[in-house]
Amino acid sequence: MDKVGELSAFGRSKSYPDALKDIHWISGDFTNPSSLATAVAGCDTVFHLVTATTPVSSNMDKIGDVQSNVVSTLHLLEACREKQVRRIIFISSGGTIYGMPEQIPTSENTPLNPITAYGISKMAIEKYLTLYEYLYGIECRVLRVANPYGPYQSAVRNQGVVAAFLARALEGKPVEIWGNGSIIRDYIYVNDVVEALELAAVHNGPSRTFNIGSGQGHSIHEIVKAIEKVLELSIEVQQFDGRKVDVPVSILDISLAANELLWRPRTSLLNGLTQTSNWMREIIRR
């Protein structure tokens, strides 16, 4: 959130306080409308990064997923309307919103057929953003981010393949994979995502939705091998039955972001894994 040149952050707690020491922090609950109104007061641009569920947990509690994500976002949009926020940048899901697309790499004009409640909620929020721009003039930009990874991604909820695998490997534990390891995903380093957010905040072109990914796919087995190379150790793998929430292949077409946002990913997979592992080692030492 940008308050007259000041960057503010909103959330229930600071997972890594040192990383936020130069940022104005606002404590609050995303499900509390009054907290949201306080947070966005005086803001010109709001970056909506909050999600309360994962693809797996959303299917287990679909009603809770709608209440915590979609309904809470509507309260946020109402607060933005009342406080006269100019623009909202929303982090959507490039990995779940398309479902099982026929087109690989997948472009933004591909039909949306999510197979998880998580993806359906993201789709609904995108539609509400468009509605609020039409009704009230609140500008919106949607970034459908692939599989982000990097420093400050917590492995506590076992969300995020890279964070989960690195944490277990550094602790000498086996990594756990669902299925035979052939699932392919598009992985994007966090610094590249941040750059896309910054460009979306000042974008003046006609498009509203952009895929943000590497444009390349890597299987789970390839990620394990890449981590072994970076850490210079052998990783034990435990396999479990595949899950219905896992799309076989997800790779994003990022040409629209390149053309309109003038954005391209700068960080290679090995470089990103190296930076992430270095940060995680420091966290483990503390």
From the structure above, extract its key features.
four-stranded parallel β-sheet; globular; 13 strands; alpha/beta; three-stranded mixed β-sheet; 18% strand; Rossmann fold; 286 residues
Task: Provide structural commentary.
The chain has 286 residues and is α/β, with parallel strands linked by helices. It has a single domain (2-285), classed as Rossmann fold, CATH 3.40.50. Helix content is 40%, strand content 18%. The chain is built from nine helices and 13 strands. It has helices at 33-40, 55-60, 62-82, 117-136, 161-170, 190-202, 220-231, 255-261, 269-285; strands at 2-3, 6-11, 24-27, 45-48, 87-93, 139-145, 147-149, 175-178, 184-185, 187-189, 209-212, 218-219, 237-240. The strands form five sheets. The protein has a four-stranded parallel β-sheet with strand order 4-5-6-11, sandwiched between helices. α5 (161-170) packs across α9. The radius of gyration is 19 Å and the shape is globular. It starts with a strand and ends with a helix. The model has no long low-confidence stretch (mean pLDDT 93).
CATH superfamily, please?
Answer: NAD(P)-binding Rossmann-like Domain
CATH architecture: 3-Layer(aba) Sandwich
Major beta-sheet overview: 4 strands, parallel
Q: Just give the CATH class.
A: Alpha Beta
CATH topology: Rossmann fold
**Which strand order do you get reading across the main beta sheet?**
4-5-6-11
Number of helices, where a helix is a run of at least 4 consecutive DSSP H or I residues: 9
Taken from the alpha-carbon principal axes, the silhouette is globular
In terms of DSSP E residues, the strand content is 15-25%
